[in-house]
Amino acid sequence: MQEQSYPDARRLPLVEELHGHAVADPYRWLEDANSTETQQWQAIQDELWLNHAASLPTRYRFRTRVKALSNVGSISAPVWRGDRCFVLRRTAKREHAVLSVDDQVLVDPLQLDPSGRTTLDSWQPSPDGSLLAFQVSRGGDEQSVLYVLDVTTGQLIDGPLDGCRYSPVAWLPDGKSFYYVRFRRVVRHHLGSPDEIPVLTDEASYGLDLSADGRSLTISAVRGAANDLWLQDLAKDEPPLPVQVGVDAITVMSVGHDGRLYVVTTRDAPTGRICVGDPERPLVWHDFVAADPEAPLSSLAVLDKVVLVGRTRRGIGEIAIHDLVTGRPLGEVPLPGAGSVGSLSARPEGGTEVWFSYTDSVTPSAVYCYDAGSARTTLWSGPPGVVGVPEAESTRLDFTSADGTPLQLLAVGKPGQHGPRPTILYGYGGFGQSLTPTYSAFALAWVEAGGVFVTATLRGGGEGGDAWHRAGMLSNKQTVFDDYVAAAEFLIASGWTTPDQLALCGESNGGLLVGAALTQRPELFAAAVCSAPLLDMVRYELSGLGESWVPEFGSASDPVAFENLLSYSPYHRVSQGVKYPAVLFTVFGGDTRVDPLHARKMCAALQHATDGQRPVLLRLDADAGHAAGSASQGIGLAADMLAFIADQIGLADQIGLAGQTRLRP
């Protein structure tokens, strides 16, 4: 293998004494993206990546196949307001999803900005569907600006209102005002008025829900792995009533169309239970649907005669039917298969129907409708595009982590293939987020080419409920990395792959996972893709949204938490002369969640320390952000990641393309 050559990057003799530890930070200067020195360093890295990318033999092939497999497009479950039906849909030829009402285009990001750099972040119709509050941001920065649109005329009637990053919107029934979150505070806005009425002024990540009759406003504020909760009776001139403050649980509350208070809580039930009560006495609840210890709650829909409860059992979605009056179980909603079920969407006024999306590893997402009156599930809308899905089979694998905890993998590969194969191991393991079977053009393009794509269920996620999340956060974070390493060891020991054929892949918190694994067990892997990663855990609080993640990771200002953070911080674990895997860092210039400084510093550290036999590269997309951008940006990124991995773990050789050079099309 040809030895890599990297430019010299200045190493500062910077060592800080922190809680009794001497902590070196030689690349602190790379935190400043605007400095001349950093920009010069970045320009060299851009050139390194572009030269390497141009030599990747499978790059054009993967771009072609990812694009073709992405042509299924996407469609959301409908949001009903009276007879009006709002749907978000992306067809094969569109860069962004378009919001339509009754099949008429309402908001098209490309019409707002032909450059394609503007994204539709969020939207909420008024109760009668005559108005629409929607939020857009530019360049991937997620700094949303809110506008109000007249649905009939298409004219803007209010906005711009800035400071609305993914703000919930709770419309009042008259359609003349709404509650929303601006600059992390809850306020009431009257259309056309510059003055806003403050409701809660402490900064937090708030959620809002307003009952269909417009009387009961529910406010929640995230507090780590828990939340605080208030209920305000808008018919009374009183401030919001605290319902849950300082309780170590996640609780969601809403008033149904039947006037009953519904409460979903992990209090005394890590997988979630449903309680009911009276909005007049919101502190008094009684059990309605008991927790299922094997299946965390995911969603709830109240219909005319039944309540539907979504759960995830061993990574597979299910929907249970319960009696509206007693909560007694009545059966299960028929589903298209064993896969992932999206959130349940019902009409605000109830009715007999509920809509939800369904997908699995080989099935593009489609929307289904269950009618409680006929007890039938029917296809409401298939994906906008039709593609030939490659032959693939999914295999569930059970393994154990280092401490004996049973875990699962989902391996997707070509039918009938056996023996060690080039394999991507994907993981996340954090923030209570679940990884469930999902159609992925990225994964299927890899499988079609002869590889295996494996998704790991790790502690820290939400697959096992609240307790599962807590088992992988704060002082337990190393457990997640141990789970991931155990997954790799299992795949090797059971003959699915070998260290020379195994690649890691993770994004955001999953990038931290990859960084930890490649610095703790570099010999297990041949390649890694580390996308939008957190890597300097000593200073992560000082940039992006880091400060808001202290409840998940802990704060370096606390001596005990600092010890834990330093123990696994990937940037601080890089050692001179180690044979590290090939690493591709992918970062985004508009990322306001995870600052690219993490990847810059880690890239410089690895380029200095590695034995030089495998490449360490940085791919910067200056016009993208942390969240999904345009379709072409996503396709290009996926193709580059796959081509890089294929070149390092033998898939290019396997499909007969090694040695060929494909220049960027």
UniProtKB/TrEMBL annotation:
One GO location term (cellular component): cytosol
> EC number(s) of the enzyme?
3.4.21.26
The family database entries (InterPro entries) matched by this protein are listed as:
AB_hydrolase_fold, Pept_S9_AS, Pept_S9A_N, Peptidase_S9_cat, Peptidase_S9A, Prolyl_oligopep/macrocyclase
Q: Which UniProt keywords apply?
A: Hydrolase, Protease, Serine protease
Q: Where is the Peptidase S9 prolyl oligopeptidase catalytic domain?
A: 442-650
Pfam families this protein is in? Peptidase_S9, Peptidase_S9_N
Q: Where is the Peptidase S9A N-terminal domain?
A: 7-380
Give the enzyme class.
Answer: hydrolase
> What Gene3D superfamilies does UniProt report for this protein, alphabetically?
alpha/beta hydrolase (3.40.50.1820), Prolyl oligopeptidase, N-terminal domain (2.130.10.120)
Q: Does the keyword Hydrolase apply?
A: yes
**Which superkingdom does the taxonomy of this entry point to?**
Bacteria
Q: Which terms in the Gene Ontology molecular function aspect does this entry carry?
A: oligopeptidase activity; serine-type endopeptidase activity
Write down the chemical reaction(s) this protein catalyses.
Answer: Hydrolysis of Pro-|-Xaa >> Ala-|-Xaa in oligopeptides
Q: Does the keyword Protease apply?
A: yes
Q: Which GO terms describe its biological process?
A: proteolysis
Stated family = Belongs to the peptidase S9A family.
Query: Which protein is depicted?
Result: prolyl oligopeptidase
Species name for this entry? Kribbella caucasensis
